[in-house]
Fold this protein.
Amino acid sequence: MHDAKVVEVRNLAKRFGESVALDNISFRIGEREIFGLIGPNGAGKTTTLRVLATLLLPTSGYVRVLGYDVVSEAEKVRPLISYLAEDAGAYRNLSGYEYLSIVAKIYFGSKVDAESAVEEAVETSGLGDRIMGKMKTYSKGMKRRIQVARALMTKPELAILDEPTAGLDVFHAQHVRGIVKRHVAEGGAVVLSSHNMLEVEHLCSKLAFIHRGQIMVEGGPQIIKDEYGASNLEEAFLEVIGKWES
Amino acid sequence: MGKLKPLVEKEVKDLLRDPRIYIGLIVPIIMLPLLGFAMSVAMRSTAEAAVMEMNIAVLDQDGTETSRGFISILTHMGLNMPNVSADSLDRALEEARTLESKALLIIPEGFEENLLGFGRVRIEVYSIVERAGLGSMGAYSAIDGALGTSSEILSATLISKIAPGLEPDVIRNPLNVTRYTIIKDRVIEVPPQALLGQLVIGYGIMVPMVLFILAITVTQIAATATAVENEEKTLETLLTFPVTRYDILMAKLLGSSIVAILGGILFTVGFLLYFEGLFAMPGLEVGAGSVFQALPPPPLGTYVVLSLSLILSILFITSLGVVVGALSSDVRMSSSLLGILIIPILIPSMLIMYGDLKVLPFALQILAYALPTSYPMIMAKEMITSTIPAEVFYGILYSAALTLAVVYATSKLLAPEKLLTLQYRLRFRRIKRKQAKDLE
């Protein structure tokens, strides 16, 4: 049985040699929640997501995803999550359809389930006939859409999305946000990072401001705005960082 | 196996469609036969042109009917023999050069007298070399051939004069030697030199060369396949899939091996076609392969041992390729690192192909026996005598242990934590080296 908490992070620290990437951060993500990590470049967002995705090992701390430890039970975590890296590339010589089919074969035991997941992902990507073309012919936005479709195709209990709308135009970013919302409505949870405050404000049910490896503030978007008397998240973010720096 | 299959499918499809890979696979099957054909055509046409235009100037100082008869024999053999009439060698050579002759033939005074007196006659041939090349070599051989044949004709004429009714060839060569060679309990009607020549070329050089090319190709493909994952930023995503690191590594090893074996087949076909083209040269049709047909094939056991040692060495070398690729941030870097890795593999392979390991200095023997890639080559050479050398048995056990250790270490390396650290260190060292160079 899975824990009711999808993610539980307590005092997570990550060091790369002398450099401290994460300094004892703690947060929780519940079911059907979209949790946003907001912070400037180098704040520790990607490192946090990589630890949750079982890619990096914590230096210290307690990290559980769906009740499983990300270090000692990484192999139980992986089938339940999916990870979209910020700069995730594509296999240049495979078509989008072939790529989705291969991933589906890895995740699904039955051929019928795999085929139905691929059909849904093709629809989600919105690539139409171009799905049969080699991915080296895709634009940056098309590659991102296929990766988002791939990440959500497997119906993960936790989708870890690093800058999911990076490089997408307004229409496609809106399309991806819709897919993320639908995923949560269907019962999944999402943790994402973003530089786009407007996107986070409208998409996330809970968020955390992260700066220099530490979580400054955590809560719902409205609560944070109210707490700092800000009209939008950007103002609240600058207020929080300004206070911390001073 | 369920999750390994789609991963292998991804590897094979991605590799076979990558121009960096498929061009390398296709080139030998197109280029090698073309090369063989081009070499054959060039050599044949040069030789034909040289023989067709064969001009041999002749200075007949004897001026007798017999000397004129001798010149006539040579003319009937297709040689063009213009006469020169100089009073010194230098002037005769100058005239021969003016006539664009390949050689100057001097028939000295007393030619007829000596010949009819059953004495040995002396003639002089001055070959004039204007161009270097295989074709010219053919022309000079043709002169020797013509002189040899005319000498036999003269000899036959003299023998018939002394002993009419006797076969001149019997007088000249009273021994009729038929050469047999016994190998693998089979008697074959060929001299041992011819037999060994073909066997050494076949098992001793051709097979090890194909194995060597296979080893290089498989390493290159595995390194490229893994480096591309780094370059295109797909490895990170792959490592979050619900598959073990071992599955990912096995998919890389199998995918690269399948493509490399295909490359090996194409190379072998290309190489055989190259020889087909080359052996189309007149005089080179030595019946290549006839010895192999006459011999029984090596026993099944030798093939089993060869296959086993080959599989182990391919796994070993592919794992090294994956390590090189994984440590490289891009394909260019993996190619540079691969160059360093290939040299220690290349040297023992060459030693095995062209020499006898047992007589080599101890350090070189250690180097050869330390590499699993050496054992299939040693086995291929020993297939001539159908024996399985003891060192190959021990070598297989050793290779299996070493390969398992390398595969295990490689699967452990396939973790972003370690890869990022190692890639960072490699890049840092390169930057430091560059800075030190700039300071100098």
